[in-house]
UniProtKB/TrEMBL annotation:
<feature type="binding site">
    <location>
        <position position="316"/>
    </location>
    <ligand>
        <name>S-adenosyl-L-methionine</name>
    </ligand>
</feature>
<dbReference type="Pfam" id="PF05958">
    <property type="entry name" value="tRNA_U5-meth_tr"/>
</dbReference>
<keyword id="KW-0489">Methyltransferase</keyword>
<comment type="similarity">
    <text>Belongs to the class I-like SAM-binding methyltransferase superfamily. RNA M5U methyltransferase family.</text>
</comment>
<keyword id="KW-0949">S-adenosyl-L-methionine</keyword>
<protein>
    <submittedName>
        <fullName>RNA methyltransferase</fullName>
    </submittedName>
</protein>
<dbReference type="GO" id="GO:0070041">
    <property type="term" value="F:rRNA (uridine-C5-)-methyltransferase activity"/>
</dbReference>
<feature type="active site">
    <location>
        <position position="412"/>
    </location>
</feature>
<dbReference type="InterPro" id="IPR002792">
    <property type="entry name" value="TRAM_dom"/>
</dbReference>
<feature type="active site" description="Nucleophile">
    <location>
        <position position="412"/>
    </location>
</feature>
<dbReference type="InterPro" id="IPR030391">
    <property type="entry name" value="MeTrfase_TrmA_CS"/>
</dbReference>
<dbReference type="InterPro" id="IPR010280">
    <property type="entry name" value="U5_MeTrfase_fam"/>
</dbReference>
<feature type="domain" description="TRAM">
    <location>
        <begin position="7"/>
        <end position="65"/>
    </location>
</feature>
<dbReference type="InterPro" id="IPR012340">
    <property type="entry name" value="NA-bd_OB-fold"/>
</dbReference>
<dbReference type="Pfam" id="PF01938">
    <property type="entry name" value="TRAM"/>
</dbReference>
<feature type="binding site">
    <location>
        <position position="287"/>
    </location>
    <ligand>
        <name>S-adenosyl-L-methionine</name>
    </ligand>
</feature>
<dbReference type="InterPro" id="IPR029063">
    <property type="entry name" value="SAM-dependent_MTases_sf"/>
</dbReference>
Amino acid sequence: MSKVQLPVHKNETVTGTVLDLTYQGNGVVKVDHYPIFVPNTLPGEEVTVKVTKVTKNFAWGKLISIEKKSPDRIDDPNWAYLQTGIAPLGNLTYPAQLKFKQRQIQKLLEKAHLNLEVAETLGMDQPFGYRNKAQVPVRMVKGQPTTGFYKRGSHDLVPIEDFYIQDPAIDQTVLVVRDLLRKYQVPAYDEETHRGVIRTVMVRRGYYSHQVMVVLVTNGEHFPHVAEITREISERVPGIKSIVQNVNDKRTNVILGTKNHLLWGEPTIHDNLLGIDFTISPLSFYQVNPQQTERLYQTAIENAGLDGSQTVIDAYCGIGTISLAVAKHAKHVYGVEIVPAAIADAKQNAANNGIENATFVVGKAEEQFAKWQAEGLKPDVVIVDPPRKGLDAQLIEATGKMAPQKVIYVSCNPATLVRDLQRFAEQGYHVTKPIQPVDQFPQTTHVESVTVLERTEK
Ligand SMILES: C[S@@+](CC[C@H](N)C(=O)[O-])C[C@H]1O[C@@H](n2cnc3c(N)ncnc32)[C@H](O)[C@@H]1O
């Protein structure tokens, strides 16, 4: 078999213009239509690149020099942030990041020949320091337990103190814990030997409540100097409400184990979202950018046009954030979610907030939709907030049969959104407003949006 002749080979130096930015934030340089993906390059830039990896359909390159810079470039982006994936768009100005996200959706719509408008991305005034949760790996570096972040695609720790997109109070808390681990010489976990004690430091801080939870993830029950470390954290961290040891003795990339020991304070913290009080435990899912989550869900709820008389389904409801906010404006809300613990949280949160017109069910949304449809449930509005893989075709069909007037689609993946919009069209649902991107994760490539669909005749 003859070998295919590729336009470039490994270690070759190529010069060219960056034509596009992929959904992962890499620049694209082409040689005879053959793409080379180059991290930290931006559209319009003229660059010199060294080819580092070649495959049949594309290559990877490393930036050597920029001959012409993009006006959208942030000079001297923090290389550690780009490299670790903390801020893969950290080399782009914020207005350009917002345009990039709008454009991601537009490009996919064009590819699918869907002539739909996409509104400008709703961004943050302060697009950093927004995360209310950190999960920071701990490794031995030069003989010291050290906190930082993994280099993208690896488990090499890059030591970092300012995590840039996390609440600065969380960064401070991580440093307090790191210094105590150093003071008491608690060995960090070693993935290769499966030895050592501390694997991860997780910190959560309520955006409105300012309550702080510290979770120390250990490789087994053994935790030397736990009493001293706990006492010092409780004395030094402002707003501390809860200190928990989580045991994870498995050889796994999964961060948290299933066993928690309360070391100090309360087992949970509280925060508010859309005026609802939420109880957050170490294992609970909770949105990580509360300010933008409020905007995203507010946009979804406003578009639902509720006046208290409607029946609403909230599919993929998680801990019921949307359901509980909608309940105030609806006759009844039905939520479905696959994770039993999330539904337990949703029910508890409903009770704590005195909400009685919400029903939560554990199950696969696609199966539950078929059941609801068979039982004759007639929702006026269906809200969906699926994971990245989007909606199951069965769920879209069942929605068509239940015939709600509106479907509000909250999406975290424009590719599956576009696919699902085409499937909804087959059920007689059409997009009636510009798709609204909301920037939930500034400095990263994640694209979230709200789409309003209405039933027209098939
Ligand atoms: C984007 S999150 C929605 C979060 C939710 N709106 C909240 O605020 O808590 C997607 C949710 O879908 C759930 N999920 C994934 N596959 C599912 C399925 N087939 N049926 C129901 N829920 C599913 C996940 O566990 C996750 O909670």
